[in-house]
């Protein structure tokens, strides 16, 4: 960077000496482009605008239409980095009009690349990929290899964003190959990081570790203090040269204007005053540049410290996510045996004394599973991995189902649940069924837990309405123990239940209200709490839901309606599972519905069974010795594309379900599972 800035000063001197205005404008454009290319913290749109404005004055004077078109491109990129997307779009359109007028094919190709950056900045990844690919092959008289490397680097970023890891890795490797050949350090750095991330995403930890180490080496070579200081000094020198030339231009313009008029006393006074002002401005600029160099040195040091802290935080977050994923799998696998065997034993007519013990065991297993799921839910919310779903729901039925599911819980503390739903609420609204259900379940369960011999009231009231939307206020009110003012301040924090005594007496994870608050923020709402010790608590929150058009109802499944039960016919099933206990449990759950079952102990055996037998569906474990369930499924799909294959896995599904479906699975069921839920999913697949 410092070398490039020094060269720009040299070119600026040469262009001035031969009065080559087009080259002078080009220098200012290149300086602006360097400002756009720099790292985000040194991005200065005001400074870049001053260079582009001076270049545009020269381009209009010469004139240089194509140069002016590229000026619009740089203005668009500046606006894009400043998230002023409407201005960026206008500048791109101005540039496109000029390039099409002069039929400049190379410039039109480059414009498609820059449009890709515009879409990538907004997260519109598919359009970004289309623009980048349409820009190839990209030509430029000055930097063809650099631009080609940038195209492939940004293609890698876009494919990474949509989790197409192989495509991302391929494009990043092309960018890295070009960067190594022509020494583009920043492209080397970013390409290496993406390749490492992609290997990690593909579970190739050895290569991921190799490229992560290479990334650290390249980064250390680029972002050392001496190199950053030289960049800051070179930038200050160029800015000083720019300001001196700007002052010279002002003096020339003033001299030209004074030669036309009479040289009277007033003109002399004004000239003297102008020269004094210019002299003071020059001194001021010099001092400012000195201060700027010192400030930049300090900022570079602080930026290095912040970058190190950021890298350490990111590593810690990745380690945390990997730890939770591993622990989840290791806990869910034995927990499946606990809950599955308990369910089977309860259905085999145990004695009353045994039944009580089994119910206690089932409660403990369910509690542990809820705790695991709550921790994972909080982790996903913090990592921003949850997206809001929009689908038609029957809100009245959602509330009734939640209340019915908690009826047994209400009896434990001799509580009564009262549900009041505004009659004006229609049967069908657009909402997120799962997240809304989680909010209601957590809040109502919370009220029932801390209330004894009391009432928990749930109300849904319309507060505003238009032709397309309804604003509904939900309230969950109890007359339980209440919450003190001091505890209300942190009641929505993770693992907070007010006190250790409350946790010991009432149990629970302390994560329910944290999840409620985070989910409501995702749904563009917020929760309010009113509570008094010994009197009770009221939680309220608003939701604005879209109405469903009548035409759409006939074509859309309404979430919350009853599903078709499992048909009375025998199925032949292939169970692929390496854990012997899990084999026994799953086989018995299958047998409850009169299904016959073959068992494969690993992926290779599963492929052989599937090739030589016909099955109504296949239950496939994921983590097995030999080859994984994913690889086994891919092999089966080569000769059998129709038999439904269901992944039975102990990992968390929320972020991975789409990846499983792409690999050839028809459905994913997370262990441990409720047998009734299992039967319904089987029914849905086979219907």
SSE topology:
Elements lengths: L1 H16 L3 H17 L7 H17 L3 H17 L3 H17 L3 H17 L3 H11 L8 H18 L3 H18 L2 H17 L3 H18 L2 H36 L4 H82 L5 H31 L8 E3 L1 H11 L1 H6 L3 E6 L7 E3 L1 H17 L5 E11 L3 E10 L6 H4 L11 H7 L5 H11 L5 E5 L3 E12 L2 H4 L18 E5 L3 H12 L4 E5 L2 H10 L4 E5 L7 H11 L5 E5 L7 H6 L4 E4 L4 H12 L1
Parallel strand pairs: 2-4, 8-9, 8-10, 10-11, 11-12
Antiparallel strand pairs: 1-3, 3-7, 4-5, 5-7, 6-7
Protein model, in words:
This protein has 687 residues and is of the alpha/beta class. The chain contains 26 helices and twelve strands. The protein has helices at residues 2-17, 21-37, 45-61, 65-81, 85-101, 105-121, 125-135, 144-161, 165-182, 185-201, 205-222, 225-260, 265-346, 352-382, 395-405, 407-412, 433-449, 485-488, 500-506, 512-522, 550-553, 580-591, 603-612, 629-639, 657-662, 675-686; strands spanning 391-393, 416-421, 429-431, 455-465, 469-478, 528-532, 536-547, 572-576, 596-600, 617-621, 645-649, 667-670. The strands form two sheets. Strands 1, 2, 3, 4, 5, 6 and 7 form a seven-stranded mixed β-sheet that branches. Strands 9-8-10-11-12 form a five-stranded parallel β-sheet, with helices on both faces. Helix 3 (45-61) packs antiparallel against helix 4 and helix 6 (105-121) packs parallel to helix 8. The longest helix is centred in the middle third of the chain and has 82 residues, at 265-346. It starts with a helix and ends with a helix.
